[in-house]
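Ticket #4471: structure export looks truncated?
Reporter: QA, pipeline team
Priority: medium

Steps to reproduce: submit the single chain below to the structure queue and open the exported record.
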Amino acid sequence: MSPTLVLTVIIIYFAVLFLISYLTTRKVDSQSFYLGNRRSPWYIVAIAMVGTSISGVTFVSVPGYVLTDQFSYLQMVMGFLLGYFVVANVLLPLYYKLNLTSIYGYLKQRFGFSSYKTGAIFFLISRTLGSAFRLYIVAIVLQKALFDAWNIPFAVTVGVTIFLIFLYTRKGGIKTVIWTDTVQTLVLVGTVVLCIYQIADSMNLSFAGMVKSISESDLSRIWFFDNWQDSRYFFKQFLAGAFTTITMTGLDQDMMQKNLSCRSLKDAKKNMYSYSIAFLPINLIFLSLGVLLVMFAQQHGILVPSHTDDLFPTIATGINPATGELYLGTLVGVLFILGIISAAYSSADSALTALTTSFTVDILGIKNDDPDLQRKRTFVHIGIAIMLGVVIVLFRVINNESVIKSIYTVAGYTYGPLLGLFAFGMFTKLKVRDRFVPVVAFLSPILCYVISANSEKLLWGYKFGFEILILNGLITFIGLLLLSKKQTDKMEATS
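Actual output as written to the record:
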């Protein structure tokens, strides 16, 4: 694929994003940056959240996921739906009642200063790593499609990617992000549908024929009930999906910042329900795309890549040695570039804004009435952007597995303490020894790792998958229970 063509597509795409940024940054203030003045239409937020959740990971990793795990990912997506219901009916009412800018302010009110800082720190770690994983995808694709041809180093590719995000989010914050993500979501969904159409057409498949071919493929198996030790076992994936959503959406400043920008709790719930309903068919489309890509590769004698994340890029941008042309033509190549860019940036821009918000409000404690707020926030925005770039470069060095698996594995260890903290706060009335909370939160992932590494020996062959998140939250919960003042006082009385 011509680097010039790729560059042209990128320039036009970002021209649109910068236009949206310009239109949404007139008369902005701190509340515009943080919460969009709480005036965001719920249906726009719903569309934007779809784009944020999909990211470059879904666009690239999910189609390749079928090579090793078939359609088992849908079991996890069904768990997501349960998680979204919990977020809408348990967490959102709490956040709106407390009128929070940062959701971790709840921990300060419930437990104290140390718990508050601990929650914010774990969010910063979780979202930084998660966003880096997601941006890594688009950076790799752009490197292969454009920058390798000009001998530009990967670190420079990452720098350019992060810099562009910084430029269009630095002023408008969440107000800009919601509207840019809406456009990017529409581009993303339209792109994948067109890609499926082009692939099916190239294989002379009608719509009915395409559906039949996918459903009859060995790669389309959804249900796994036969082996409880298998990481694809239904109940493991379903529960992992539910708790992953509760933590990665409901306890995540990035996702909740969009919800808190809605006009009311009622609108925020509408957004959450609409967003959750759309998530299942969209992921089904991506998995179906994966089956079609494998079928196309087999039909044309293309070697299926061993690294699952390379399946879609290889076929969409690969050159047929017999003809010297793209396997699926220039249109699919352009659509792929558009899709990967829109997917990655729709996730990364909101993450950068949320990280800036959390660090400014939660870590630095800067108030809205600070006369130097804008300058301080800009410096934080720059610092977060640089940090993301560094992590992406490091991830390229150490990564050796599917990115989607990496994200959920990391989430299990970093979001687990947040799950335990919020669960303990909401489902008990106990007070804790606040100063010891950071110790529990940081020891819990370590203990989880030890248990997971030895689970096959200790638990009769059981191997932890994404459900490690549940174990992590449980260990944190138990640790907080042991730290509760009520429990401590009893122990002191009996000694």
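Status: closed, not a bug. The export was complete when the record was re-opened. Leaving a note from the reviewer for reference: The longest helix spans residues 113-147.
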